[in-house]
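Notes continue from the previous slide.

Worked example: a multi-chain complex. Inputs as given:
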Amino acid sequence: MYNKGTIIPGLIIFVLLITFPLWFNAFSKASTVPKVELPPGGQKECVAPAAEMRANHMVLLNEWRDDVLRDGNRVAVKVGGVEYRKGLQTACMACHTNKEKFCDTCHVYTSVKPFCWDCHLTPSVLAAKKETN
Amino acid sequence: MDKQRRKFLKIAGATALAGISAPVVVNLTGSPAVASAAKNQASAQAAAAGGHGDDTAPKGVKLGLLIDMRKLYGHPELLDKATQACNKAHNIPKIDNKKSEIKWIWKTPFANAFTDQSTSNASYTTRNNDFLVLCNHCAEPPCVRVCPTKATFVDKKTGIVAMDFHRCIGCRFCMMGCPYGARSFNWMDPLPFIEELNPDFPARMRGVVEKCNFCGERLALGKEPACVEAVKEAGAIIFGDLNDPNSEIRRILDKEHTIQRQAAYGTKPSVFYIV
Ligand code: SF4
Ligand code: SF4
C-alpha cells in the first residue's frame, strides 16, 4: 500500500471533521427546549388539544384565514361553551396575551419567522399605542 | 406553506430575466381557473356581453349602498363623521400626502366623482358640496380581472369585492384597473401613522394595496358598515341586498332616480347616489 502514512491520518481527520457537529453537540451542554408561558388568564382549554395545537397551529391559522377572507365563513368556533372568533387577534391573542413569551419563545428557538405580525396587532403593540395617545 | 411576497417577486424577477416570462404571463391570464372564475362571477353577464346597465337576472346576494346626497348637502361634518368611523374601524393610517395617503371612503367635488356628468352651469348645491365616494363593489370589477394573484376577488356570498392582503404582491395592476381611484397603495409601514388602533382589525404591511371592504368583518357580527352607522340619524346612507325585493335599498332604488359613477364604463357600480 502506497502512502499509508498520509492516507490513514488524512482519513481520520476527514471523519473527525465530518462528524464534528455530532460530537460537538454531545460534549456541549444540551440545549433546553423552550417553555412557553401559558395563558396568564389561567384558561385551560384551547380550540384544540395542546399537542395538536403545538403541531398544527399554523395549519389551523391558514384554514381560518381562508374561511374568513375567501369563503365568507366567519362563524365563531365553539369549544366547551366558549366562542372563539376565527382570528389571530380576536381568538388567539385574547387568551395568549403575551406574544413575546408565548409565540416568540418557540419561534426564536426554532428560527421560524412568521410574518403574521407584520400586520396583525399584538397586545403589546396595542398597549404601546394607547400610551402614546 | 406560504411563499413570502418578496420571495415570490424574486423568483418572478429571476424568471423574467431568464427570458421565459412571456409564456408564463400568457399561461396565467389564459388559465382555465381564471377564465372560469370570471365566468362564475358574472353568470348573468355572459348572456348580455357588453350590454351596459341592463339588469339581467341577477342571482344571489349583491350588497350595495345608496347615498342620499339630499340629506348631506350643507353638512360636510357628516361626510367627515362617516370617513372617521371607517378610518377608526379599519386602522387606516393618516398620511397627509396625496401620493401616499390611504383612502377607503372620502369626499370629493361632483366634477371629480362624476367626471362624465359634470356640466357647465351646474347648480349652486352641486358646485359647493362634496360628495362621498368609496369603492363601488362593481358587479363587473376590472380590478378583479387584472389581479394576477386573486388577492382581489368577488365574495360569492355577498357580492363584495374583497381583498386578501395575504395574497397581494403589490403589483398595483388593480389600481390601474379601477377607474374610480378607490384603491390605495401602502408606500410605507402604516403602523406609525395609525392614530387609534382597533384591536378587532389587523393593520397592513408596506407594499400591499387596500380599499373599502364593505365592512365584511362588521356584517359578520350583525352590524352595519361603519359609515352607515356613523350617519344613521341623518338616514343618508342605506345599505342592503340589491337583489332582495323587500330590502330598503331595493325599494328606494325602484322609486327614486339614482346615478352611478361613470356608469358608461360598464363596471356596474353597486354604489348609488340620489343627487
Ligand atoms: S370601484 Fe374600483 S376597486 Fe372597487 S370594485 Fe370597482 S373597480 Fe374594483
Ligand atoms: S396589487 Fe392589486 S392586482 Fe396586484 S396582487 Fe395586490 S390586489 Fe392584486
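Summary box: Chain A touches chain B at residues 58, 62, 65, 69-70, 72, 74, 88-90, 115, 118-121, 125-126, 129-130, 133 (CB under 8 Å). DSSP finds six helices and two strands in chain A.
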